[in-house]
Amino acid sequence: MPPLRNMDEMRLFLFDDARGCFGPLTDLRASFELRTGAGLTRWRIEHALGAAPTGLMVPPKLAGVVGQRYALPVNEPLTSAEADAVLLVNGRWPGVVESEAVRRLEAGSMLVQADGQLVAACLSPADAQVLVDARYDPAALPATHANRIEQNLLLERPWDILDQLEASLDKDAAYIDLPAWRGRESHIMLRHGYAFKAARDAVLHPGIAVDTTRGPVYIGEGAVVHSMVTLEGPCYIGSGSTIMPHTSIRANTIIGPVCKVAGEISFCIIHGYSNKAHAGFLGHSLVGQWVNLGADTTVSNLKNTYGTVRMQLTQTRPGEDSGRQFLGPLIGDYVRTAIGTRLTTGACIGTGAMLAMSSFSPRFVAPFSFCTDQRTEPADPPRFFATVEAMLARRQVVLGEAERARIEALMSEAIEGGQV
Length: 420
What we know:
It is built from 8 helices and 35 strands. The chain is an alpha/beta fold and 420 residues long. Strand 4 (109-112) and strand 5 form a beta hairpin.
C-alpha cells in the first residue's frame, strides 16, 4: 500500500470528538482505543493509512489516562507541529471503507459524511487548530473545500461496533501478521475454507476443532487453547489468552489479550485482561477490560418477542432502539459478577459495578454500585481499589496514577451525583 501523500511533510493526528455515546466503554479510553475487531480502531486506522499518529487529541478528562498509555503528545497545540500539513482523522472512523478518500485528501480540504460530521481533514497546523478549538465543526472553516460522501461512516453507539464487526474482521485479515505455527496439525480437526493461522509460540492441545468455512481463525502469540475446544471463524484469540477445555467460540468473536474464557461465546468482543473462566453463555455483547464474570454468568441476547433491543447507555439518557434483534449486555471496565448471575437483553453495566443477585440484572446498572437482592449501594472506595490492585497484581500490572485519578473522578461523579 503506498504511503500517504507527502507524508514527510504531513503529520497524522487522531482525535476523539466526544460526539458518539458508547456508555461505560469510553469512561477510561478514547474512541480510537475501542476494540472494534482484531485490534483497536487506532490499529486499523494506522494500517489503512500506512502511517502512525504523531499526536492525539482527546477530551480533557481523558488526557491523563491516554497520555499514560502512549509515548505521544496529547492535546498539544497543533500550531507547534513541525509540518506543512496536518491530517486530522476522527477516532470514530473504523477504517473499513473510504480509506482512499482519507488517504488522498488534498491540502486545505476536509472529508465530511452525509450528516455533516467531520471524518478527516488535511489542513495547515493553524487551520487544524481552529478546527480543534471549534470542536471539529467543519463550519468553523467555511472557505475550506469539503468533500461530502453520501453515507455515514462514524461509529455512534456501541451496537454500531457489532453492526460492522464482520466487515472489520474482513479488513483486519490483511493486517494480521503471525509467525507460522510449528505444531502438528494432526492434533487439530480442521475444516478448511478460509485461513487458519496461529503464532509460533501458541500452545494448541490435541482435540481442537477448527471450522474456517465461514471465515479465518487467528490465534495470537502465547495463547493457549485447551482440548475439546471448537473455534468457528471468523474469530481472533488475542496474545496471552487462554481458552479453557470444552469452550465453544462461535463466529465473529474477538478475545482480546490476556483473557481466560470458557463456556459458549458468540459474536462478542472482549477488550482484554478479562475473565469468563467457567460455563455460561455470552452472546452479541461488548465487554471491557479487567472484567470478571463469575461461574455460570449467562446473558440474554434475544427478546422473547423477537423485537429489536433497546439499551440505556447513561443514567440521564433514555433507552434507545438499537435496531438489532440480537444484542446482549454492554459491560464496562472492572465489572464483577457473582456465580449464577443472569444479565438481561441489552443491559448496560457501568464501570466498576458489582452484581451479586439471584434475580435478573437491572437493565441499567450505575457505575461503582454494589447490587444485591436487598439493595444497591455505592462501592466503598478503599475496598474497591484494594480489589483492583489485587486483580491487576495477578497479571503483574500496576494501576497507574492517571488511571487511578480518573477512576476516583468517575466514582465521585457517580456517588455525589446520586447515580448510586
